[in-house]
């Protein structure tokens, strides 16, 4: 997807007949003034007219640590149009003033970058000053900024409505029980957006009701609001508060088997889709990103019954959730910036018009209408064999991270979060500073695919490079790679590595090789040859394994300190 850039409108002025000299001069002045206006107003995050897509980050629980700094610096360089700070900002109000913390944040971001804040539990003492120091820079909000507010983005021709609420006793007088003023305010903002034809609805809240390992020590005072959002099938519900990362399956209510969520329990009937390729209108996805920087990250107890609602989770990696929004899709990537190397992604694809709005609840406490049954989920058709899924030739300026590929898709996993990745002299480079593995993922999730790349390794001692298929996270994938002595097909399932098959293949340091890795059904095949020479007719390795059925395509390398991998091309095609 394309990043939201700062466009300057160009006006084609047609002339009929003759234009006098004075009119020509006046026209020149108008064009000059228009150009100056465009330059002055070209700041990211404030000019969004005519945008076909935009991006933003979301995280809560920042504090002021090295992890916070890494996150803020990533946000500032990520190309995001704005950041959502989902509460719990300054954890040390006794020793750090609101002015000092806000200055710290702004020192790590571009000038006037929209860092939109929401109240959290830790912010009560300093909230008004934090709001003043980190003001709204979107510019078209309704409600009370920092507490309960909404805005449409991009202004003028919105693709999404953002709604922020503060349940959980964070703010005095802000109750979200069914029928209350604040409950109804949220419902009305949702219905307004639907009536206006705004494609996506995204809700930000600091404190959750449903989360793994809460032990319910902090009472869930916003369950009515949670059930309202699910009954209206908002697309995303974004949270902080828990110091880890968790994302649910797509959830929805229905009249019979899931009339509401119940805190402290798990009901599989509330799950309408459990993979990473979702369809709009089927339900809502909750994303907890409490990894803004506060230490330590919270433990995760998978014996919690609410685990049933969640697709994945992690408490090893600090980072932010990065969202790209277009008329056709929301794509999400968790970008780890420090700690571990966890990554995650999912997409929500548009299907027809937004769901028909349900009536707004009345201002009284009368029961809301029962939610309608969830529609069946439509599975996206499999790509046709031979269809290009992803490709990159790395022909772009030198930069940190791999950024956006030649096909306008953004690289995922470590490629846009770990600073060992860069573009250098029209090659994708990964430079090792310790012994570690790195993933670079590009394109959609598929079952049958082929990945091919051309790349080299400066020193194969303790290092290797290869392609992955059916990658879902760092613990589940198939890989074909060379290590200087062999071509190997390997799998990692549930964190356990298994070598499936290998054949001798001598690779020379600094020499470019092309590797082709194919997966159709249970059959995995691989071959490799020196770049620029004739491709072998037959597969060099073929093995059968049915452990993994679908996932993403990409690259994976193992690097030692001082080793560097370089890639000059990558392509994935459907099979």
Assembly context of the chains: single chain
Q: Indicate the CATH topology of the largest domain.
A: Purple Acid Phosphatase, chain A, domain 2
Per CATH, the class of the largest domain reads Alpha Beta
If helices are DSSP runs of H or I spanning 4 or more residues, what is the number of helices? Answer: 6
Mean pLDDT: 85
Q: CATH H level of the largest domain: which superfamily? A: Metallo-dependent phosphatases
Strand content: 25-35%
Please give a structural write-up.
The protein has 575 residues and is mainly beta. The protein folds into two domains: 55-349, Purple Acid Phosphatase, chain A, domain 2 (4-Layer Sandwich), CATH 3.60.21; 388-574, Exo-inulinase, domain 1 (Jelly Rolls). It has six helices and 33 strands. The protein has helices at residues 21-40, 66-77, 98-107, 127-133, 181-195, 223-231; strands at residues 53-59, 82-85, 115-117, 142-144, 148-153, 160-165, 200-205, 236-239, 245-248, 250-251, 271-273, 277-279, 285-289, 310-314, 317-326, 329-339, 344-349, 388-392, 399-400, 412-413, 421-423, 428-431, 436-441, 449-457, 464-473, 476-482, 486-493, 496-504, 513-520, 523-530, 541-544, 552-559, 564-574. The strands form five sheets. Strands 18, 19, 21, 22, 24, 29, 30, 31 and 33 form a nine-stranded antiparallel beta sheet that branches. An eight-stranded mixed beta sheet has the order 4-5-6-7-8-13-9-14, with helices on one face. The longest helix is centred in the first third of the chain and has 20 residues, at 21-40. The protein is globular, with a radius of gyration of 25 Å.
